[in-house]
UniProtKB/TrEMBL annotation:
Its cofactor is Zn(2+). It catalyses: 2'-deoxyribonucleotide-(2'-deoxyribose 5'-phosphate)-2'-deoxyribonucleotide-DNA = a 3'-end 2'-deoxyribonucleotide-(2,3-dehydro-2,3-deoxyribose 5'-phosphate)-DNA + a 5'-end 5'-phospho-2'-deoxyribonucleoside-DNA + H(+); Hydrolysis of DNA containing ring-opened 7-methylguanine residues, releasing 2,6-diamino-4-hydroxy-5-(N-methyl)formamidopyrimidine. Binds 1 zinc ion per subunit. The active site is at P2 (schiff-base intermediate with dna), E3 (proton donor), K58 (proton donor), R288 (proton donor). One of its GO terms (molecular function) is 8-oxo-7,8-dihydroguanine DNA N-glycosylase activity. One of its GO terms (biological process) is base-excision repair. SUPFAM superfamilies: Glucocorticoid receptor-like (DNA-binding domain) (SSF57716), N-terminal domain of MutM-like DNA repair proteins (SSF81624), S13-like H2TH domain (SSF46946). The keyword Transport does not apply. This is Formamidopyrimidine-DNA glycosylase. Monomer. HAMAP family: Fapy_DNA_glycosyl (MF_00103). It comes from Neoroseomonas alkaliterrae. PANTHER family: FORMAMIDOPYRIMIDINE-DNA GLYCOSYLASE. The keyword ATP-binding does not apply.
Amino acid sequence: MPELPEVETVMRGLAAVLQGHRITEVEVRRHDLRFPFPKDLARRMEGRRVLSFRRRAKYMLMRLEGGESVLIHLGMSGRMVARRAGEVPARRIAPQGAASDARGHNAPPEAHEHLVIVTDHGWRVGFVDPRRFGAVDLVPTAQEDAHRLLQGLGPEPLEEAFTPAVLSAALRGKRTPIKAALLDQGVVAGLGNIYVCEALFRAGISPRRVAASVAGARAERLVPAIKAVLAESIGAGGSSLRDYVRADGEVGRFQENFAVYGREGEPCPACPGVPPCPGIRRIVQAGRSTFFCPRRQR
């Protein structure tokens, strides 16, 4: 599933194409994804100017004039494809054999493309989701955080308000492993498996450590590590694993900089060849793969 850096990257790509422009046509090609599309979705979007974008955790919010926001969640395999109507894309990555649509928004439907947005300046944005775990909804802009999918989310990890003190307060009394605690969206919003593994490695904290024991001095190391790994991944366009691509069709590059994720059995980049370092190990926590260096991370 795309994590915070991937969602942020896609959102920035959409903002570059859509912000300030008017939606002239919306085509809804099925009645639902993970849950039904809002009633009269096309009618409520057409004719509206896109005012701005906001990301909350792993959700994108496209704010329209008239006081409504389009909430978008990519799910496991969703991606947004933006290009000029009628333009043949320079690069095309289509999951599960999806056919290329190079003839503009009037072309035959692309496989797994369930929603199409066309603008007044000749751009076309399609929501492609082979597995249909994504979601689209409408919410009053003034009440975005009251939406059922956004209620109860913790602080945004890239905001200044997310501090070691805030994280420490959220972790106190928690007896779960710190890896599980950081994946709890009520503790901190938007973190996923990849970036939790990478941040814990940078902070030198074992993913098996009891979460409450991280409050205090360890949180002083962990919060900057979380912020740094997320910022670096956004700068690299996110991590392209499986279906994820940017809105312009390009892949992210941060996977080339993974220190531990997916590197089971490889030397630890922080202590290569130093006995008794056993290299990167993989364990399973709550059904998710965790990668870490047992020598560096305590």
